Prior knowledge:
Number of strands: 5
Distance between the termini: 98 Å
Amino acid sequence: MELSSEVKEVSGSPAVLKKIDRLFKMLMEFNRSMSAEMTALMDGQEQHAKRLSLLMEEKRRLEVLYTSGISFSSETEMRALMEKAIETVVRELQADAGFIVLVNESGEPESVFVRNMNPDDHPEAREMSRTVISNTLSQAKAVQVADAGADDILSKRQSVIRLGITAVLCVPLVAGTKVLGAVYLDRRNNKTPFVESDLSFLLSFARQIVRGLEISLEISSLEKK
Length: 225
């Protein structure tokens, strides 16, 4: 614009002024194009960084699964195995509380291994979780609730409000066609729900628990014989 003003003062040639205007428009268009490309490049870098972070977390979780499988295979005492399992999964999935329920031949709860929650001190939590676990055991498939307060069944439970339960995740422990129990986790006063990667991890982890449990039961059987 300064150049255009100076040309007007010196010569005032319309042809020269048109060339200057055309050059100015080209520069502006080039600047807009470069800005758009830089924005796209920055967005792409941010997405790659997020993707890399997710891949690193996935790698770390796979390492946890691998090492837990070795650990479970070497553990011959069932109680120690279950306590180690629930401690690991609560920590890895950043749950506030959780427990593993093992059932007998009739499908009735036989053993419970708890982390960060005492069912005897909180009977309302036991009642609420029993609903989730019953569905998991009867259908032999995972139950995932992203918003417990909006769930048709759980929202009616006083324990959801009293304990501040916001998200629930529960998967069955399945060996062949037999359901051995379930793993239950919840988050409290936390608006972050469990996501699909959490469910995938828990399902894989449950298979590790089942392998360790089968080894423990087999050893126990051999000892009895």
